[in-house]
Amino acid sequence: MRKFLFLLMLILLVSVALSAQVKKGGTAWVSSKTADLKSSTWFFAGTTGTLQMGDQVTVLQIDGNWAEVRSSSNSSLSGWTALSNLSARQIVASGGSATASEVALAGKGFNQEIENSYKTQGSYNYADVDKTEAITVSQDELYAFITEGRLVTGE
Q1: Residues in the chain, pLDDT under 50
Q2: How far is residue 3's CA from residue 24's CA, in Å, rounded to a whole number?
């Protein structure tokens, strides 16, 4: 009997996991703050557009870690994005909408109250953390760094 229950639970768990994956022809939602749409599956491919967190898309095809998608609200907006930018489940904030910074904090296991508590306690230098988080590097600068240093660009 225990083996049967274990097998049943395992089958249920696998079926739930499979149904929660982004699939070709299915609907997905952007789960990152922004998601650049690329002209191909190459990281340094030209950007054709940008989606925002919570935007609904239709998955046209999947190639490795990339998905070709089309915006549900703007059918002319399409391109390739990393699968990690997508969720098979709609993102809904409990009690209202969440800001991008709240979602970023939640991804680190924090909320604003906890982060403020850390900033006021101890001798941590959060000014340097804030400066580091504010640094941005353009895709062109990153590509130049990689090619000039003769580094491998990956996929």
Answers
A1: 14-19
A2: 35
